[in-house]
Amino acid sequence: MSVAVPAHPLAVFPGVRLGTQVPLAEIPALVFPALLDTLLMVGIVMAIVVVVGIPLGAIVHNLAPGGLFENRPAHTALSWTVSIGRSLPFLILMASIVPFTRFITGTNIGIAAAVVPMSIAGIAFFTRIVENSIRGVSPTFVRVARASGASRLQIIRSAQLSEALPSIIGGLTINTIAMIEYSAIAGTIGAGGIGYVAVTYGYQRFDHTVMLATIVILVATVGSVQLIGDRLVRLATPHGAPTAPRPRMFRAEKPLVRT
């Protein structure tokens, strides 16, 4: 029996009738294209999350009391907006913005439709991570930057984001893993990917082999992302210094020599 890979997330294998199991030899042809769909989906979402979340997190932090451009009303409004996006369970968020998703993408199924709610949830989550990471940077760095005549943009870039980079990368790793989990949930709306395969072929058809294959792939994918993220955090973390390093823009080119 020949089984073809579905060209659309809502397509079914023409050679497999409802209630039957996918032949073992055909499982790779089913799950690996779905994995590529998941990686594509998560990759697009994370690109949007990084581009929007990093500046938004810096803005939220610096609008707070003691920030570079303190503004309590603006901080309260923006902070509450981020908190709402972060607090909603993803399935509820995905269902509640279906009209907005259809308006943006022209459809409410497929990868394009999943990117919209995943991006909103990811931006809200990552904004808080960036805000908390910058909050953990010593205020001394900002004071030194101000005393050196640096502009607000220079302070944010070199005295806040630069010093918070290891923490931001760690948070980005967690966020990426969350988006992989969200992509599986998005499979319930026909978004494609591993989630769609698990629901359609593993759950609805009671195909335990397909379900096990999707679980193994998800675990391996998440583990790989975690390993890569941990490695990047180690590379971005200064070594051999008992205290926090000076801001990169103010470090001396050569070590001082005592006479």
Can you tell me about this structure?
Residues 1-18 and 240-259 have low confidence and may be disordered. With 259 residues, the protein is an all-alpha fold. The radius of gyration is 23 Å and the shape is elongated. It has one domain (24-237): MetI-like fold (Orthogonal Bundle). It contains ten helices and no strands.
Question: How would you briefly describe this protein structure?
Answer:
The chain is mostly helical and 259 residues long.
Taken as a percent bin, the fraction of beta residues is under 5%
> How many structural units, i.e. domains?
1
Shape: elongated
Distance between the termini: 84 Å
Main beta-sheet strand count, sense and barrel state: none
What is the name of the CATH topology? MetI-like fold
Mean pLDDT equals 80
Model regions low in confidence, pLDDT < 50 over at least 5 residues: 1-18, 240-259
Order of helices and strands: HHHHHHHHHH
Task: List the main descriptive attributes of the protein structure presented here.
single chain, 259 residues, mainly alpha, MetI-like fold, 10 helices, 68% helix, disordered N terminus, disordered C terminus
Indicate the topology:
Elements: H1 27-63, H2 72-87, H3 90-96, H4 98-105, H5 110-135, H6 139-147, H7 152-161, H8 165-186, H9 193-203, H10 208-236
Helix pairs in contact: 1-5, 1-8, 1-9, 2-5, 4-5, 5-8, 6-7, 8-9, 8-10, 9-10
